[in-house]
Amino acid sequence: MSADFDQARLERWLTTKIPDFSELLAFEKFPGGQSNPTYRLTTPGASYVLRRKPFGPLLPSAHAVDREYRLLTALHPTGFPVPRPILLCEDDDVIGAIFYVMELVDGRTLWPGPLPHETPQVRGETYRAMIETLAQLHAIDHEAIGLSDYGRGGNYFERQIARWTKQYRASQTDEILEIERLIEWLPNTLPEQSGNAIIHGDYRLDNLIFAPDKASVAAVIDWELATIGDPLADLAYLMMNWIMPIDGRAGLLGTDFRASGIPTIEEGIAIYCRAAGREAVPDLTWYFAFNLFRLTAIVQGVKRRMMDGNASSAQAERAVAQLPALALAAWEQAKRAGTR
Predict the structure, then answer these.
(1) What's the CA gap between 152 and 318, in Å, rounded?
(2) Which residues span the domain enclosing 151?
(3) pTM of this prediction?
(4) Helix (H) or strand (E) holding 149
(5) Which helix (H) or strand (E) holds 50?
(6) Based on the structure, what is the number of domains in the chain?
């Protein structure tokens, strides 16, 4: 076992807080991800997941694992597929950062996006389950489950553009022309908000755990970017994978959809509309530009943490290398949406 904090101290603390928690047999950091470090904890009787803030200096409002814990606590009783939250530790002295513990959900993480090892039927069932689960999330009454104050009022996109511009500026290391153009263009082209719902903020294939033996969603994970906002932002973020290149992750551009069994982007949107009870959604090009801009700000934060020696994944360098291409792709979508 190895960790970047005192495991023995954590073991002693958890033993006093979780019934039947005993010897920590194994402790393993999950690979991938650039944000909140996540670990598997194995004991003789059960396995758990620990998710913590990164160590070191952080941008304001980023990595709020206590906020994630609150959301899981509200969602789990509704039957929506999320891991069961177990406890939150707000005492930095235990491991050096705030963390929470949740159940380990038995299942499969699927990637890359084209699902090359599955049959066309299973691919289709998997993507339908993913899209329908997103619609299920958006249908939850956030006020009824105590999340009326989980997001601020006002236009969601206006708030988000201001937030991510601020985050980008706080971690900026270079001047990228396309991002500067987007920072000027996006606030001047805001669409009308289509509604208010719980939105995940990073909803994609590898942030889901699928059941071990069937194409159903056992759990949605990685809720760091969740808030209350326009469900079209979530839908567009998911559908953006259809216009992103195949890169070993969620991208699908270039897939032979008819042969693969994976729905086309038009079919995917139709699946969502049926599940959500919507007749249609507007053209998503502006929303693609917005989401790609947001991604550039997130990756810029990864770059800053990497330069500060505080990146949470060995894949940070690879993610940062994609920054110029993301910025260019965002501006290309803005031009298609009609820049002025």
Answers:
(1) 34
(2) 120-337
(3) 0.93
(4) none
(5) strand 47-52
(6) 2
